[in-house]
Amino acid sequence: MSPRHNRPRDAGKPADRPEAGSGRGLERTETWQGEQWIVRIIAGGPPGKFYRCPGCDQEIPPGVGHLVAWPEYGGVEDRRHWHSACWNAKDRRTTRVQRSRNAPRY
Questions:
Q1: d(Cα 12, Cα 5) in Å, to the nearest integer?
Q2: pLDDT of 13-37, one tens digit each?
Q3: Which of 5, 55, 73, 82 is deepest in the core (most CB within 10 A)?
Q4: Are 60 and 50 spatial neighbours (Cβ–Cβ below 8 Å)?
Q5: Which residue ranges does the record annotate as region Disordered (predicted)?
Q6: Angle at 101 between CA 70 and CA 90, to 5 degrees
Q7: For residue 53, how many other CB atoms are within 10 A of its CB?
Q8: For the chain, what is the domain count?
Q9: CA–CA separation, 70 vs 73, rounded Å?
């Protein structure tokens, strides 16, 4: 006997969740430093692509969930990839990132 399914098959998938393979995450608008920012949640980056988080100055390896933020009227060159925790703590951080002695400078 097969197990019983108590819910419809699509009940676990929210309506605003992007379809698989769409390449785009959920977007929202936030206000930071008197400016409107568009924030997009990314489930994982493309294979082989590393990003540097401006909040902690550490690399975001491929496949790790993070978010992309840019000013509302900014262009593609203004997009920055952030760790989710770094974006949430951006108001509690100092303006100058402290690097260790051996950290690369990009």
A1: 12
A2: 544 444 433 445 688 899 888 889 9
A3: 82
A4: yes
A5: 1-31
A6: 25
A7: 20
A8: 1
A9: 8
- Per the domain annotation, does 42 fall within a domain? yes
**Inside any domain, residue 93:** no
Q: Which residues of 77-106 are buried (b: 16+ CB within 10 A; e: fewer)?
A: eeebbbbbebbeeeeeeeeeeeeeeeeeee
Is 55 domain-assigned?
yes
Q: Domain limits at 57? A: 27-88
Residue with tokens 């936030």: 30
Question: Which positions ≥6 away from 70 have C-beta within 8 Å?
Answer: 37, 38, 78, 79, 80
DSSP output for the chain: -PPPP-S-TTTTS-TTSPPTT-----EEEEEETTEEEEEEEES-PPTT--EE-TTT--EE-TT--EEEEEETT--GGG-EEE-HHHHHTTTTS-SSPPPPTT----
